[in-house]
Design brief:
Layout lengths: L2 H15 L2 H21 L5 H24 L3 H15 L8 H15 L7 H11 L6 H11 L2
Helix pairs in contact: 1-2, 3-4, 5-6, 5-7, 6-7
């Protein structure tokens, strides 16, 4: 089942269960997805939905640190709960070793010989590992893998 459909089904379940916190968080997620679709006039695939979820999680982390710094633990706890709910929609991330092995396999497959080939390597890595590996980690490994 595509991720967007799963989110819609979870929203229906939260409505039936009258779980207002879960429902509110799912509605925010759906609003962010719809906004992106309307702005770009496209239908988002799972990779784009995961990118939106990552963005929302990053926003929650920033809010948690701001609320904790201001002494508002109640709001920080609410943001932590929303972050946990959003993280449930993320696919399992690859370990650093598995990502490193995948990047090295792509470098070998493309026959990358130096830093000039990094753009080609990054393009393939981005398409193959977009959902299952951290963007920052993919970039660092590509830089190291291209001699």
């Amino acid at each position: 089942m595509p991720l967007k459909e799963q989110i819609t089904e979870d929203m229906k379940t939260a409505m039936r269960a009258k779980d207002s916190e879960r429902l509110g968080c799912i509605r925010l997620l759906q609003a962010a997805i719809k906004q992106k679709e309307i702005d770009e006039r496209i239908t988002l695939d799972d990779a784009a939905v995961v990118a939106i979820i990552d963005k929302l999680i990053k926003q929650r982390k920033d809010s948690i640190s701001a609320f904790a710094g201001a002494g508002r633990q109640d709001l920080a706890d609410k943001e932590k709960a929303e972050m946990a709910l959003l993280q449930a929609y993320l696919p399992e991330r690859m370990s650093a070793e598995a990502t490193r092995a995948a990047v090295q396999a792509i470098v070998a497959e493309l026959g990358a010989a130096g830093p000039g080939d990094m753009g080609r390597v990054m393009g393939v890595v981005k398409t193959r590992l977009s959902i299952c590996a951290c963007f920052r980690m993919r970039g660092k490994l590509c830089v190291r893998a291209c001699p």
